[in-house]
Amino acid sequence: MTKDAVNTPFSQGELGQLLIERLDEAARCSAPGAGVTRLFCSQEHQNVLPLISRWMEQAGLAPQLDAAGNFVGRCPKAQAGEKTFIMGSHQDSVIEGGKYDGMLGVALPILALEALKREGVTLPFGIEVVAFGDEEGVRFPTTLVGSKALAGNVTPDQLAVRDEQGVSLEEALTAFGCQPDEIPAIARNPANTLGFLEVHIEQGPVLEQRHHAVGVVTALTGIERHRVTLRGKAGHAGTTPMPMRHDALVGAAEMVLAVDSVLQRTDKLVGVVGKLDVHPNAVNVIPAEVTFTVELRSPERHIRQRGREAVYAAMEEVATRRGLVLEMENTYSADATACADWIMTSLEKACADVGQPAERLFSGAGHDGLAMQALTDIGMLFIRCKEGLSHHPDEAITAEDGEAATRVVMAFLQQLEQP
């Protein structure tokens, strides 16, 4: 890049195209297979950091890997300890996910800061952009470790959880080049933190139906996750009479249908049984043990509680009838979180400033804001995604919408006023 290019403001349309190019580049840091697979503390996670580092440096940010696996870029004011506004999202993906879930919220605010730098704009407060290490909770049975670390809420039991290969989170962080014993020291000071903003694809169809490029989020849904273990008795598949079997997989199959039935008949409650493991998983052996996950989501705690109780009662009935042992363990829980009124108002003004209509809408997905709200006021800007599709290789946005959202963030930062 020439010196003149570095100092020349981006032309209309250039920001959106560059954003797409950067996200395409990041998507190549993926495990083999369809879409994007980039898990926490993986080689793919390691591979994407130099890209993010380069983007940060071009925006005038100093990049650094922290003790919790977050990659953080700070402007000079933030480095000097001045009051700071935080932006960011997560770098990790689901298995065979899309290019934009998470990484969009890393690349876009960095690009917005680079554009402001080119225009000679100096913000009167510090800025840091965070590429959180783990939001999806795919590798380890915990999530939001990075954002919880900034909020000062990581506990020793979270670091002790293990992945399917038996590697603990603490061991994975250490191997990744982090010092997990220093996690308490990276907690931000609430008095010095102005707020937190995440930019994210909507992961739903509302903006596309409204024909809007962006939307202002009002709140993030409440989420809880459970690990269910069902134990029966292994036996020879050819010699054990059917009435005498205690087949854990057959019981689990009934339970999956029972969970779906509860979800189908409970208003404002959604969920999924997304993962299932069978032991001994042999072609001619009656399954002795099945472990599966149950995730429940609702903006209202009492609805999740009622759904959880109904799910457990249904599973208990199956276990009793089939002579199986049932255990259900809560592995994650977060209540719904409201976005700050002053950030929503500021985002709406920024949208108006750049000529973008922006209605308010609720997020049915969980995000790092669920943890960051313990530190500071949070806000969220949604970007329209094709057919509302997410967690899928065909996840897509347009360069035009990326451009619009980047300019909204630029306007937001320039007129940012805390109440």
Strand-helix topology:
Layout: H1 3-7, H2 14-27, H3 43-58, E1 62-65, E2 71-74, H4 76-79, E3 84-90, H5 104-118, E4 126-132, H6 145-151, H7 156-160, H8 169-175, E5 193-201, H9 206-210, E6 214-220, E7 222-231, H10 248-265, E8 270-272, E9 276-279, E10 289-298, H11 301-322, E11 325-334, E12 337-338, H12 341-353, E13 360-363, H13 369-372, E14 378-383, H14 399-414
Parallel strand pairs: 3-4, 3-5, 5-14, 6-13
Antiparallel strand pairs: 1-2, 2-4, 6-12, 6-14, 7-10, 7-11, 8-10, 9-10
Helix pairs in contact: 2-5, 2-14, 3-5, 5-14, 10-11, 12-14
Could you give a quick summary of the protein structure above?
The protein is α/β, with parallel strands linked by helices.
What does this structure look like?
This protein has about 425 residues and is α/β, with parallel strands linked by helices. It has 2 domains: about 5-220 and about 335-415, Zn peptidases (Aminopeptidase), CATH 3.40.630.10; about 225-335, Alpha-Beta Plaits, CATH 3.30.70. The chain is about 35% helix and about 20% strand. It has 14 helices and 14 strands. It has helices at about 5, 15-25, 45-60, 75-80, 105-120, 145-150, 155-160, 170-175, 205-210, 250-265, 300-320, 340-355, 370, 400-415; strands spanning about 60-65, 70-75, 85-90, 125-130, 195-200, 215-220, 220-230, 270, 275-280, 290-300, 325-335, 335-340, 360-365, 380-385. The strands form 2 sheets. Strands 1, 2, 3, 4, 5, 6, 12, 13 and 14 form a 9-stranded mixed beta sheet that branches. Strand 1 (about 60-65) and strand 2 (about 70-75) form a beta hairpin. Helix 3 runs parallel beside helix 5 (about 105-120), helix 5 crosses helix 14 and helix 10 (about 250-265) runs antiparallel to helix 11. The longest helix is centred in the C-terminal third of the chain and has 22 residues, at about 300-320. The radius of gyration is 23 Å and the shape is elongated. The chain starts with a helix and ends in a 5-residue tail after the last helix. Keywords: Hydrolase, Manganese, Metal-binding, Zinc. Pfam families: M20_dimer (PF07687), Peptidase_M20 (PF01546).
